[in-house]
Amino acid sequence: MHTPRLTVCFDNYPGEPGLRTLWGFAAVLDLPGQKILFDTGSNGRILLENMDRLGQRPEDLDMLFLSHPHWDHIGGLDSVLELNPRLQVVVHEGFSKHLLRDLEEMCAQLTVIGRDVTPLAPGVFSTGLFDSDPPEHALILDTGDVTALITGCAHPGIDTLVGAAAQRLGRPVRWAIGGFHLMYSDEAKIQQTLRALRDLGVTDVVPTHCTGDAARAAFQEAYGPHCHDGGVGQVIEIA
């Protein structure tokens, strides 16, 4: 069985030497027969440069999943579509109607997610749209062997997203990956979130992007070797 692999291609946290860091997040999810780009960071030139150094070709992508319409997650959109207009682009109803109309002309297939959990590919789902500020959805991975949730910024709350995904799957989500949006949270909120994820059955975390230094340190202390470094260039085997 091919282990799902996540390669962080854009992050404000450094990882591998020789890669550029800017504010934002993007990662390539490699699955059997499916290659998904999750978000595009804030700058297309830097995204493509990092992807090239990591051996990830935009032309090989099958799907582009955009979590929410903030600039630091959609900044590389044009650069990717220019090189691969054959993509399926997955967005949600909270994106600008003007952008949705333009995207229909720029990609092979535009999928606009509403409020329901939506299958996208074998073992890949959208959580459905959450009424956060801004509205956001996250990606659920269920290979049978492994369950994971990948989030851009977790504006609805990382525990809320994980809980909703677990309810949909009927079993715990073991991995929580991405920006947990705790950078402005106090210690009490960070510990509350940690406990909630533990109670939900999360065994492995990859807290990065907007998680914040204090929360990352707290997750490292709580999860030990099961807290995996994010940062640009990190390759995570989701096993």
TrEMBL record:
GO molecular function, one term: transferase activity
Metallo-beta-lactamase domain mapped to chain residues: 23-209
Signal sequence coordinates: none
SUPFAM superfamilies named among the record's database cross-references: Metallo-hydrolase/oxidoreductase
Name of the protein described by the UniProt record: 7,8-dihydropterin-6-yl-methyl-4-(Beta-D-ribofuranosyl)aminobenzene 5'-phosphate synthase
Taxonomic lineage of the native organism: Bacteria, Pseudomonadati, Pseudomonadota, Gammaproteobacteria, Chromatiales
